[in-house]
Amino acid sequence: LSERLSGVFDRLTKQGALSEDDVKTALREVRVALLEADVSLPVARDFIKRVQDEATGQAVTKSITPGQQVVKIVHDALVATLKGEGEPGALKIDSPPAPILMVGLQGGGKTTTTAKLAKRLTERDGKRVLMASLDVNRPAAMEQLAILGSQIGVDTLPIVKGENPVQIAKRAKTQASMGGYDVYMLDTAGRLSIDEELMTQVEQVRDVATPRETILVVDGLTGQDAVNTAQNFDDRIGISGVVLTRMDGDGRGGAALSMRAVTGKPIKFVGLGEKMDALETFEPDRIAGRILGMGDIVSLVEKAQETIEAEQAERMMKRMAKGQFNMNDLRMQLEQMLKMGGMEGMMGMMPGMGKLSKQVADAGFDDKILKQQIAMIQSMTKKERAAPQILQASRKKRIARGSGMEVSDLNKLLKMHRQMSDMMKKLGKGKGGMMKQAMKA
Ligand code: GDP
Ligand code: MG
């Protein structure tokens, strides 16, 4: 696939903005990549349509091709879809003992994942965990959990023959409260396919346990079936999250995307093997890379974009060193700050700016103020921006009105510009030119 793609990219070597044709050509290959990764057709189609609208007309970064740029846009959109809200890997396990209900089809990896998760909660989060198997259908199922428990040093509820799942769940709850456990995990029985009896049983257990988390464990290699299973369990039981197992296999992870797109439920963890520590927090970035299989292109584009930004900054530094610091420069600075999330970080990176940066921080610069300042500069004419000293009362009034601000706000902006430009001049003229030295560094 990568070869096929690079062929497409070679043909797309024009510079400038992404044309509709560029985008379409590249997306045709991306669509194939998604389907090969087992993303379901309607999900892939929807996704491509969204990216197409977003990508068309975007500027192409110098030194990469339009096709490469599209792949990066696709990658970022994939990450956004996979992520959803909330912290991946986070579980609601306050108010002990917090019940976690594990559900899914037989063979999906419920019992293994229950133990893996218990180990993680014990070792990483310092929780006291009790595990209970409610699988009265399969003869060896309860012993399986008990054995895993002793391997990882996590307690399991003693086995009492002849109980039904609801009775076991109640006993687990009592034992967890009396024993001072933080969490108790209920590993339910599965069926080979969804049936009424299974769902009714899980419903009853849910009503007894009122779980804080209901985790669906599903085989990530089963693609569309995994999504249907999730949909069914969510409709009947209500799930709070998903663990995709067998992500160590050959599958490209497309089930993750379909799962997110169709159910909207967070994928919390992925299973990466049979061993007890083969459970990892779900990382959208990694799965996106795997689905596309184009990680090299993504990092290439990131690199190119960084270079461009560095070049821009250097050009501005050069102008500033010569004492040329007009309103256009200030605007660029303000926009950078907005992007970088604060003035302090930006100024902190420039030598000799530490003190000013603190003043600026104390003055309470936030996004809103930055945006207002940019709006004021936008209301200036080209001439005014190049030479702000020509601003007298009537021009000021016009600019303030044009940007919905007061003349006093504009005066503050002009004062800041004056101070900054004085500082730049001083730095530029200083011994050997501090700015020049900084640029060499
Ligand atoms: P359950 O029926 O849902 O409880 O499934 P089990 O937990 O008994 O798992 C069924 C089989 O899948 C076992 O052989 C597990 O070792 C294996 N398994 C579970 N999770 C993973 C995983 O993430 N990767 C791999 N390769 N195997 C797994
Ligand atoms: Mg099991």
UniProtKB/TrEMBL annotation:
Record's keyword annotation contains RNA-binding: yes
GO BP, sorted A to Z: SRP-dependent cotranslational protein targeting to membrane
Pfam families per record: SRP54, SRP54_N, SRP_SPB
Keyword field: Cytoplasm, GTP-binding, Hydrolase, Nucleotide-binding, Ribonucleoprotein, RNA-binding, Signal recognition particle
A single Gene Ontology CC term: plasma membrane
SUPFAM superfamilies named in the record: P-loop containing nucleoside triphosphate hydrolases (SSF52540), Signal peptide-binding domain (SSF47446)
CDD domains named in the record: SRP_G
Catalytic reaction list: GTP + H2O = GDP + phosphate + H(+)
The keyword Magnesium belongs to this UniProt entry's keyword annotation: no
Domain SRP54-type proteins GTP-binding, chain residue ranges per copy: 266-279
InterPro entries for the chain: AAA+_ATPase, P-loop_NTPase, Signal_recog_part_SRP54_M_sf, Signal_recog_particl_SRP54_hlx, Signal_recog_particle_SRP54_M, SRP, SRP54, SRP54_GTPase_dom
EC number, as in UniProt: 3.6.5.4
EC primary class: hydrolase
GO molecular function list: 7S RNA binding; GTP binding; GTPase activity
Residues binding GTP: 104-111, 187-191, 245-248
Subcellular location, record wording: Cell inner membrane; Cytoplasm
Topological type in the membrane: Peripheral membrane protein
Source domain of life: Bacteria
Domain free text: Composed of three domains: the N-terminal N domain, which is responsible for interactions with the ribosome, the central G domain, which binds GTP, and the C-terminal M domain, which binds the RNA and the signal sequence of the RNC.
UniProt cross-references to NCBIfam families, sorted A to Z: ffh (TIGR00959)
Function comment: Involved in targeting and insertion of nascent membrane proteins into the cytoplasmic membrane. Binds to the hydrophobic signal sequence of the ribosome-nascent chain (RNC) as it emerges from the ribosomes. The SRP-RNC complex is then targeted to the cytoplasmic membrane where it interacts with the SRP receptor FtsY. Interaction with FtsY leads to the transfer of the RNC complex to the Sec translocase for insertion into the membrane, the hydrolysis of GTP by both Ffh and FtsY, and the dissociation of the SRP-FtsY complex into the individual components.
Subunit comment: Part of the signal recognition particle protein translocation system, which is composed of SRP and FtsY. SRP is a ribonucleoprotein composed of Ffh and a 4.5S RNA molecule.
Family: Belongs to the GTP-binding SRP family. SRP54 subfamily.
Xref: HAMAP family: SRP54
Protein name as annotated: Signal recognition particle protein
Organism: Tateyamaria omphalii
